[in-house]
Amino acid sequence: MTKEEKDMPLYLDDDQSMLRDSAREFMKGEAPVAHFREFRDKDCKDGFSHGLWKQFAEMGFTGMLIREEDGGLGMGNVEAGVVLEEIGRNLTPSPFLTTSVAGVAALNEAGKDMRDRWFPGIVAGDTVLALAIDEGAKHRPADIAMTAERAGNGFRLNGKKQFVVQGASADMIIVAARTAGSAGEKDGLTLFAVEKDASGMTADSARLVDSAMAAHVAFDNVEVTADAVIGEVDQGWAVLEKMLGAGRTGAASETIGVGSGAMDMTIDYLKQRKQFGQLIGEFQALQHRAAHLYSEIEIARSAVLKAQQLLDEGDAGAPLMVSVAKAKAGRATNLAVREGVQMHGGIGMTDEYDIGLYMKRDRALSEFFGDANYHTNLVAEMNGY
Amino acid sequence: MSDLDSFRAETRDWLEANCPAEMREPVRDERDVFWGGRNTEFRNDAQKQWFEACAAKGYTVPEWPKVYGGAGLSPAEGKVLREEMARIKARPPLSSFGIWMLGPALLKFGTEEQKRHYLNDIAKGKIRWCQGYSEPGSGSDLVSLQTYGEDKGDHWVVNGSKIWTSYADKADWIFCLVRTDKTDKYRGISFLLFDMASEGVSTKPILLISGNSPFCETFFDDVKVPKEQIVGDLNRGWDVAKYLLGHEREMISGGGLGDGSLSLGSKLVTALGKDAMGRMDEPILRAQAAEFDVDAIAYKAMSERFVDEMKAGKNHPATPNMMKYAGTELNKRRHELVMAGGGSDALEWESEASDGGAKARGWLRTKGNSIEGGTSEVMLNVISKRILELPGA
């Protein structure tokens, strides 16, 4: 970390703004809400378009967080967040968050052989990763109980994971399992790269409320070699924290994109819809709620950017800010989609109108990498109460 | 080493040498805040030493030009200085409406002569200013103000009254909105500066629900104001007033930041104790404090972004209204939780143990945050109209 970075102002610099402009144009042009609808209505089992994923590669998005010496662009969480906000705004279905943000953050901690094994395919937009962390309905990474016993030269994995987004279409799943200790302990966790055809692994995919595909993945004596370990055996918590840090701020950025999209759509509607002979945006009852919402979204956006800057600087204060960002983005966006549906009135309840799709996406994103309650509790714990 | 790195190193050394240990302790009460002025007194030597060191260095107003009493720091250097002062928890050397409100308006609208004269006096803490805006009949609808300045050739004769004048009884000079044309509501107001010791000026403190009297009613009875004491053009004082209000709202929004150190929850837990799990032994309050801390830390990031964007000219000009709204609502919530955490101890109004009812009085004082300088409702109107561009707002 250099001092110049530490003195970075809390707004996007010129390069980041240019990236935002090109990501905005790209998502709006190539993957707007209409793209999402088309996909949903085709009942696609992957939950995303492989063609679009190749386009992500052409745009240089897929390898953003991969270091330059590994064939990537060596960018940071701020840049990933810029792209994710546009993804959120357009409800673009893609494996970007799991593969290029959280997955890459974990693999950046892996040895050279493993990086060489996976990074070229990710950069090229051919490879998709999924993450197997949660074991219950809520995100509780410290409580991971799934086991990985030593067996010969490698490990034997047993247990169940859920909410493995795009788990059935992934080429590789990053699996957090326990090589020592018991649930509740941070020591003794190990991260594994498990390939899709691994014998004994079954992925049972289910469509979620937001039309994403997420799998329940069962591991029944799945054997992996020692080469499958990401980082060090029993020291997986450190790698998991890197993965979760990137995933949480990334999800927070996508959430802010969802909230901003919903808010903008709603404010436009207030300027068009007439009732009682006037635009409903003239009613102070709605104006004040819209203004309050705007304030909440802007505060949340600032928190997310701050968290990403701290992560990129390797600042010791990053984990606290990451949790603040995920919690605040979740609360603000939840307000945006609730107000959005309410202020749209009857048509807000129809499938034809997009606002409801934002509500569904917010609901799913809020559970991804821990919801606002989970992170608010972490904020209390990190502050010693 | 970059220029900023060496500036940071120099700043650290300078603070180490010049900021006494007592000035790094949290502010206990009003007497720990130094406001300057003709009749001021230092509470102790440390306060005096710290103020004088900063005034000599230009650090009471670090980013103002040197000719006006500042240190001429760049925005990036200013940020480094703020960070380094925050790091050692240094108290502000001088608190002043001159610095927060009048100064920025003079820098934008003042003549060169006015800037040299008034800004230097502000920077050196010589003159304590108060603000004459609200009137008994003009609160949220400020532009309806009636205090009138009659043109007498080389001076005006001002008659009328102001209300909610902060510390008018302790101030040396006032910056005051005065109607100079009764035919035009907006373009009939001028921004005048005058001495509170002028003949015809009187003040009367207002007792608040907190039991304190930080505000006054201020009366003008044939007060003579020389013509050169106008800021900006005749009848165009509303432009100056609006610009200054932006800075006032920004200042009040700072309350949302609290003292910038510990989280609220970690303060409450020291009094409330912990359960076997190490959690605050009051589960619902713990959750409320944690929700508050999330919002307060996020607001702090917003505040940092606001300052950075403002220095780079990237802000929407109405952003201070949003900061004021969010910051004051947050501060009110903080004090509600402080009272809940304090229980019956926090109800004591006069005892020594309660520091003269500091918690209760502080709590009651914050209720004014979302009223003074423009109510929350006015702020939401401004956001609706100027940022969201909603119709007919």
Describe the protein in words.
The complex is a heterodimer of chains A (385) and B (393). With 385 residues, chain A is α+β, with helices and mostly antiparallel strands. Chain A has helices spanning 3-6, 14-30, 33-41, 50-58, 77-90, 96-107, 112-124, 236-270, 284-313, 318-344, 355-367, 372-382; strands spanning 129-132, 147-151, 154-165, 172-178, 189-195, 201-207, 213-225, 229-230, 274-275, 278-279. Chain A is built from 12 helices and 10 strands. A 4-stranded mixed β-sheet of chain A has the order 1-4-5-8. A 4-stranded antiparallel β-sheet of chain A has the order 2-3-7-6, with no helix packed on it. Chain A has a two-stranded antiparallel sheet with strand order 9-10. Residues 1-5 of chain A have low confidence and may be disordered. With 393 residues, chain B is α+β, with helices and mostly antiparallel strands. Chain B has 3 domains: 3-123, Butyryl-Coa Dehydrogenase, subunit A, domain 1 (Orthogonal Bundle); 129-235, Beta Barrel (Butyryl-CoA Dehydrogenase, subunit A, domain 2), CATH 2.40.110; 240-387, Butyryl-CoA Dehydrogenase, subunit A, domain 3 (Up-down Bundle), CATH 1.20.140.10. Helices cover 42% and strands 14% of the residues of chain B. Chain B is built from 11 helices and 8 strands. Chain B has helices at 3-18, 45-57, 75-87, 97-109, 112-123, 237-253, 264-272, 283-311, 319-342, 358-366, 376-387; strands at 129-132, 148-151, 155-166, 173-179, 189-195, 201-206, 215-226, 230-231. In chain B, the strands form 2 sheets. In chain B, strands 1-4-5-8 form a 4-stranded mixed β-sheet. Chain B has a 4-stranded antiparallel β-sheet with strand order 2-3-7-6, with no helix packed on it. In chain B, a hairpin with a 3-residue loop joins strand 2 (148-151) and strand 3. The interface between A and B is large, with 45 and 52 residues.
